[in-house]
Amino acid sequence: MQDGWRNMQYARLRPRAAAKPLARLVAAATTHPVISRVVSPVVWLLSFVVSILLRTAFLTLPTVPLWYIYNYFNDYWLFYFPPDSGMFVPAWPEPRTQLVVLMATIPSWGLCMAVAVLLWSLVKYLFPWVMRRRRGGDYEMAIPMEDVHPNGRTPKAPRSRPAYCSLSFACFVVFLSMALSGVYMFETYENPLDYRYRPAVAAALKNPTRSGHHDGTKVFIGAMFTNNIDILPHWIKEFNKVIYYLGTDNVFVSIVESNSWDGTAEALDEWKGTLDAMGVAHLIRTRDQTVKRPGDMGGNNRIDFLAAERNLVLAPLVEKGGYDVVVFSNDVLIAAESVIELLQTKNGEWDMVCGLDLARWGMYDAWVLRDRLGNLVSSLWPYFMDDVGMQAAMDDEPVPVFACWNGIVAFRAEPLLPLALRTPGRLSTAPLASPLPDTHPAFPQPAALTPAQTPPLAFRSSAPRECFSSESFLLPYDLRRQFGLQRMYLNPRVINSYEWKYYVWYRYVTRHWLVAWWMRHFEKREWMMEARMVVGDPKRVWKWDGGECHPWF
User: Which parts of the chain are coiled coil (predicted)?
Assistant: First the structure.
């Protein structure tokens, strides 16, 4: 019986009529001596090429959608981050960006190929079944009579699984795994450290109370805005969440808006009504001209203007006191849980703590930021060149710094208050260990003067013999020199930015576990010294009491 099946012959009973002329033409072409010399090699070559393509189709055909999908995501990347948009190239290493493109490409390609393999397998299975169901097929099976069973029943041929079935199944599993890896990477796109306070914020929104869900700390929230309608709705939404978490009785909001023409003032006017409905104490100045903007915003003119604006924001605090902590925000994109993360840095054991603002050249506020030794930093991750700072930044832990601002900052309110409004015991009653340098505008001061007796601080510009610095640098500098407050940190988990595309890139993409793993293990840091962010001529960097000075002027 088995030998009969091996010798089974197939007979063509009804060849299609359309195939006869083609068969005659091919036969004539191959038998004619002249035409055969030309046609035969061509036919052989075409047959060889087609045979190779068919035999390697499972390898060559998938590269077509792979190439298309890769180029789609790469073009998408170049659309949002064009090379000629002023980005600092070292802050966007090619291997890192290509890794991100591949993280989107491979799962998408895997999904497409898994669907293709599934459809192809269905066709391979269904086509023979359909052909068997058709009447009068092109082929019929001729079975030797000796193999017919005596009872008249035709024996069934032993079935074996075709080789393509195993290959198709293996390919389907591989491609489906790629697609599912994309689902996993998408579901785990956020760093758990970045949203660990999100449940607490959600609970505060679900069950709002006037005392809040924090520890009862009184927080003064301040900010300045000018033409920020692009980010302001998000900022307001997130700070509403922060207020509910802290407690509406524990917050004062002070905003100064000036010189806007894009709807910023109108958005803040609307927020006034929201804060009134929430029962939050606030003073929001819109279209304010208390501080005149100078025509020339160069040099100390700009610093004097910004210092006066910031002092105007703090005016309600200085006049009445009553708050423990100041949260001062720039016009940045930031999440509510990041603000809570800022306040919870080191379990609240800090004198000043800053976020991390990021932009097209990496870390944004390099003019203000100094490492714990007072040295300049890099705009490239992990930003700090001293071992302690670098390791802390790589571990996502608070980094001790000499000074910072970086988009959003929290600091103790006591040094800004008049002596009569200060709470006893919050500032030291012992004289400072080191006297003020003679370059400081408050020099000289009595040797017995204590921080508790020191006049209140305010934002200011540089004195003539000081390094030309930002008002945002001079505040932490004065906190150190005049009040002896040394616990200052930058929290690398508090990501913020001034544009949406950079916020998404740094808040989600570069903090994705796979990208972060790549950065820690494969990106070199030996050349960071060459990428140290210097505002001015690097050869003219000099040191003063506040550390290394940017040679801007």
Answer: none
Residue type, position 305, single letter: F
Number of helices and strands (H, E) in the chain?
Answer: 16, 14
SS3 251: strand
3-state secondary structure of 547: strand
* Dist CA 542 CA 469 (whole Å): 13
Give tens-digit pLDDT for 306-360.
999 999 999 999 999 999 999 999 999 999 999 999 999 999 999 999 999 999 9
Residues 6+ apart with CB under 8 A from 76: none
Place of tokens 């058709």: 134
pLDDT in tens, 139-174: 444 445 454 455 555 555 555 555 456 777 888 899
CA 472 vs. chain centroid, Å, equals 26
DSSP E strands, 131-170:
139-142
**Residue 281 forms beta bridges with which residues?**
252
List Cβ neighbours of 291 (8 Å cut-off, separation of 6 or more).
258, 305, 308, 309, 312
Decide if 505 contacts 496 (C-beta within 8 A).
no
Beta strands 281-285; 251-257: pairing state = parallel
The SS3 call for residue 37 is helix
What are 424-438's pLDDT values in tens digits? 999 999 999 888 999
Domains in the chain: ranges and CATH: 23-55 (no CATH), 67-130 (no CATH), 198-549 (3.90.550.10)
User: What's the Cα-to-Cα distance from 432 to each of 367, 380, 401, 480, 486, rounded to whole Å?
Assistant: 27, 36, 20, 10, 12
DSSP code for 415: G
* End-to-end Cα separation, the chain, in angstroms: 101
Query: From CA 494, how far away is CA 477, in angstroms rounded?
Result: 22
